[in-house]
Design a protein that fits this description.
Maf protein, globular, 25% strand
């Protein structure tokens, strides 16, 4: 089902992510922001127990976020999104401190991983569209001092918003090869969203 957006006031972003809001706005989609505040860790833990793939976990989280807010604002379209780092089948969550950030970089160091971003659009508490996209990133093999030096140049705001790398900024220097769309890596496959909304 396609939904033609006639005014941007019809859209809510169910996320506190400034990155995702900026991606939407830079593509002409101006929306109200109402974070869903779901307990992502408990959802992930439940899905882990069911042996859900990283793609399913990302998609389910995006859907839960969108459905929760859209049930409260039935006349609006609600965008929910989620991104996960998939390292050999293991999900790596965003760091909550710089020690965790360094540990994440060490785990990715010299390896190939995937960044999975899912988006869901809901109306009246039900999902009406969803899409999941995967990017592949190969990180350089770096010395510990190089990883520490990289982190010393990254602000807290950037670190906690983009996970451990900001792909359109200094984070790009960490990689040998990147296959995928930058917006997807930053958390929102905007091209598919625009196609669906006919914008």
């Amino acid at each position: 089902m396609k939904f033609i957006v006639r005014t941007m006031s019809e859209i809510i972003l169910a996320s506190k992510s400034k990155v995702r809001k900026d991606i939407l706005q830079s593509n002409g989609i101006y929306c109200e922001v109402i974070p869903s505040n779901i307990d992502e860790d408990s959802v992930k833990e439940s899905l882990f127990k069911k042996n859900a793939s990283p793609e399913i976990i990302s998609k389910n989280l995006a859907e839960l976020k969108a459905n929760k807010i859209s049930a409260k604002f039935e006349d609006k379209l609600v965008i929910g999104a989620d991104s996960v780092i998939d390292l050999e089948g293991k999900i790596i969550s965003k760091p909550t401190n710089r020690t965790q950030a360094l540990d994440i970089l060490k785990s990715l160091n010299g390896k190939t991983h995937h960044l999975i971003s899912s988006v869901c659009i809901s109306k009246g508490g039900n999902m009406i569209w969803n899409y999941t996209e995967k990017a592949q990133l190969i990180m350089k093999k770096l010395k510990l001092e190089e990883l520490e030096n990289y982190l010393s140049k990254i602000s807290d705001e950037t670190l906690y918003a983009y996970n451990v790398y900001q792909i359109e900024g200094l984070g790009k220097t960490l990689f040998l090869d990147i296959k995928g769309d930058n917006n997807t890596i930053m958390g929102l496959p905007i091209k598919k969203i625009k196609d669906y909304l006919k914008i």
